[in-house]
Amino acid sequence: MSKHAQEAIEEYFSHLLQPQQCFAEDCINPQSVQLQKQLDLAQQQFVEPSPSDTDNLPQAASPLASSAALVDEVFIGLDETLDDRFQALFFKVGGLTIAIPLLHLGGIVNRQLISQLPGMPNWHLGVQNHRGKSLNVVDTYAWVTHNNDIKAEEYQYLIQLEESDWCLAAESLVETKTLSKADVKWRSQSGKRPWLAGIVKEQMCAIVYPQKLQQMCALGLNEQDQLGK
To answer: Left if phi > 0, otherwise alpha if psi is -120 to 50, otherwise beta: which for 171?
Structure first.
């Protein structure tokens, strides 16, 4: 890659990391309530535990109930949750390479039958049942680029965000690599694209902030939206 091209790419990603002002009333997508209703319906439809199993299931708090707190939270960068050297999984979607720290990886699931739900955003592929849990599958390429150029069947894996019920669809797994914090240009302030924790310098690819990403998806936010400070 030429020096000019490298500088252009670095300038582009640096622009994505720039913070912008956010006001509380702008941080909640008006589609959030409708999205939460659909997710509740999906949970009832695809996960019906027996009474004996109910006590063993984790009780997830409504993401809408915590949306006000998200606006006021103190910014904590993903790098503050990691050791100086950490492992990350690199995967591909539509030619894009994305990284996620293994510490925040809930698991990798093979794509199987995904059931679509009516009234959901176009980036929501549907839900897949896995070990008695409904996993919400995000069309990663559509969410990041706003283009639905990848067919659902082209995705082969689901990248689970921490222990949540949200997964990113991936076409292929590239590698697991040990990185140092110095290998990444980290976000230092809150702002637009809170899911973008930083840029891996050598690969020039995004490293995602799983906690922020799952919060955004649960609130029905698009990739350019912001959760607040």
So the answer is: alpha
Name the token pair of 131.
């070990």
Domain 3-46+63-218 has CATH 1.10.10.10: no
Q: Give the integer Cα–Cα distance in Å for 82 and 80.
A: 6
Give pLDDT tens digits for 90-133: 999 998 999 999 999 999 999 999 999 998 999 999 999 998 89
Residues linked to residue 170 through DSSP beta bridges, in sequence order? 157
Q: Which residues contact 17 (CB under 8 A, 6 or more apart)?
A: 185, 187, 188, 193, 196, 198, 199
pLDDT digits (tens, 9 = 90+) for 188-216: 888 889 999 999 999 999 999 999 999 99
CA–CA gap between residue 91 and residue 96 (Å, rounded):
8
Could you give the residue ranges of the DSSP H alpha helices within 127-196? 140-145
Q: Which pTM was predicted? A: 0.71
Q: Quick one: DSSP state of residue 9?
A: H
Angle, vertex CA 144, rays to CA 149 and CA 44, nearest 5? 90
What six digits make up the tokens of 46? 């695809």
DSSP state of 164: S
Query: For tokens 């799952």, what's the residue?
Result: 214
